[in-house]
Each structure stands twice: as C-alpha cells, then as structure tokens.
Write a structure and sequence with these properties.
9 helices; globular
Length: about 325
C-alpha cells in the first residue's frame, strides 16, 4: 500500500512538517510513503481552454494544453492508494496553489466523464483508459492557519475530491497554529489522520468518513448556501437541497432521500453531471459554426484590446 502526502506550504514549514507527521504514522502501519512539496513542481494555472473535456467528449482520452508537471503529479496521485493534502490557510479558505490543483483536476479528471470516454475508446476498438484513472481512492485534507479565520477551508478542500469521486476520510483544520509542531494534541491528530488513511485505503470498497459528523448527513459538509427569500438551502459541497431545522437545540440539514443519488460526490451524480457536460460541450462545438455566434464574438473582441503584461512587453 502506498500513501502519498502533498504539502502546499513553504519549504520545511508547518505544512511540510505536519504532512510528514501523518506519513510517519502511516509508515509505522506498514505503508510505503512518498512526500511531495508541491511548490517544487511546475504547476501552471488552468487556462479554461476546455481541451480536457473536449478530448474526453471526442473519445481522444485525457488531454491538457498546459505543458508542465501536473500530469505527472496526477499520475502520482492516481497510483497511490491514499492521498493526504496539507495546505496553509491564508484567508479562511484553501490556498491559491491548492485552488490551482483543484482547477486542474476539473472536468478532465471527472470520473463520470472518464467512464464515458473509456467506453467511447473501447467502442472504437481502442484500448480504454489506464485502469489507475478509474481506481477508487481514499483522500484526506488538513488546513493549517495562523489565526481563527479557517472555517471555509473544509469545503474548499473537499471540492478536489469531487471530480475523481475519491472517498474523503478526514477533513480537518487547525487554527492558531503558527507553533503547531509544539501542540501535542494536533500532532496526535495528524498521526491519527495518517493511520485512518492507511486503514481506509486497505479496504477501499468499504472506506468511509472517519472524522467528526458534519451538519450534512450525506457528505459531512458544514457550509450551506441559503437561497434568499426562501427556506431552501444547499450544501455547498455535495449540492443537495433541503432545509436547516433546529432539532434538540442544534441545526440539522434535512433533504429528500430520493435526491441522494443526485449528490455531486456519488457515482450516479457524477454520471449525471458527465452527461450534462457531454451535451453542453457538443452544443458549444456546434455553436462555433453559427454565424450569429461568430458575429457577436467579433463585435465584443473589437471593443478593446487587453493591456499587455509589463514583464512581457
């Protein structure tokens, strides 16, 4: 079994250290471990070119126009049995680097689309996708912050697991943690996160959430969007709609159980989402041939040119 740890913080800073704490505990349970300091790798921004989704829609496999280390990094993640990401909290949520990883995961690694692309390739008599890209996986997240602005990070982090539909085992954050290496309770929590990841990865078919129960009984998310002027609220993580009700002095999120297969983190929900993306990408590709579409693009492109970058001028 292999556990991969990714740190998105400064070199040999708190994030690197706490990631290694969890990896050491995983190693003590017999796991092979690997550590990556993500800043050491060349990871470019997603450009929004949609080559990834179109490549899957057209049965060409996994494609990305960016030429950097992301494909190699994703391969490392795909080959591991369990992944841990430790990320600094700058402004309550995930770091900029983490969001780049999340954007790059995007539709090009969406399990619903990957299943469809695998089928399309096989229909053409071609080999399907490498099975490692369809493999179930356990993943955990930890955010480390220097203040108490931290509560948004859980949802930010778990979003990365949405595209590949990996099972989130732990999703925790530590506030007021500049001196985290001296806080024994947090050191022990990191060790437990490492042990939990090994346990979950060892029986991935039955792997499930091992953290504290969250407000959403489906995904254990704690962040909700309340639609203005209504009693409808939406879990910002799994996307289920329902209501927040006070039960025994605490908020409880209630939704129609019949809607659970639509949740964004289920295979059935991912397949529905994949169908939607396939249809929308096909519609957009046809739209590029439409004269009215071309005219509108030309008109607004001519409104103003972008200001050039001073460093590239």
């Amino acid at each position: 079994m292999k556990i991969l740890g990714l740190s998105c913080g400064t070199k040999n800073g708190n994030n690197d250290t706490m990631c290694r704490v969890a990896l050491e505990a995983a190693k003590e349970m017999g796991a092979e471990i690997e550590f990556i300091h993500v800043f050491d790798w060349d990871i470019k921004y997603c450009s929004g070119c949609v080559a990834c989704s179109r490549g899957l829609v057209m049965g060409k496999g996994m494609i990305c126009s960016q030429k950097d280390d992301y494909a190699a990094l994703f391969d490392k993640m795909a080959e591991a049995d369990g992944v841990l990401i430790v990320d600094p909290i700058y402004e309550s949520g995930g770091s900029g680097l983490f969001h780049v990883l999340c954007d790059r995961m995007g539709p090009g690694h969406d399990i619903g689309m990957l299943y469809m692309a695998d089928g399309k390739l096989k229909e053409q008599g071609l080999p399907g996708l490498d099975p490692k890209y369809l493999k179930k996986k356990a993943i955990s997240f930890v955010g480390i912050g220097g203040s108490d602005w931290a509560c948004r990070v859980e949802t930010d982090h778990a979003m990365l697991a949405m595209s590949p539909a990996w099972t989130v085992i732990d999703n925790d954050y530590f506030s007021w943690s500049k001196d985290v290496i001296m806080q024994d309770d947090k050191i022990e929590r990191m060790k437990q996160i490492g042990r939990n990841l090994v346990e979950a990865a060892g029986d991935i078919e039955h792997a499930k959430w091992m953290g504290k129960p969250g407000a959403c009984p489906h995904c254990n998310g704690n962040n909700f969007y309340i639609h203005p002027g209504t009693t409808d609220c939406e879990c910002e993580l799994c996307g289920l709609h329902g209501t927040l009700e006070v039960v025994d002095g605490a908020f409880k999120f209630k939704f129609d159980p019949a809607d659970e297969p639509k949740a964004h983190d289920t295979i059935s929900g991912k397949k529905m989402h994949g169908d939607d993306i396939f249809q929308n990408e096909g519609r957009l590709m046809n739209l590029f041939k439409d004269p009215e579409f071309k005219a509108r693009k030309e008109h607004y492109t001519a409104v103003c040119a972008p200001t050039p970058s001073p460093s590239k001028a």
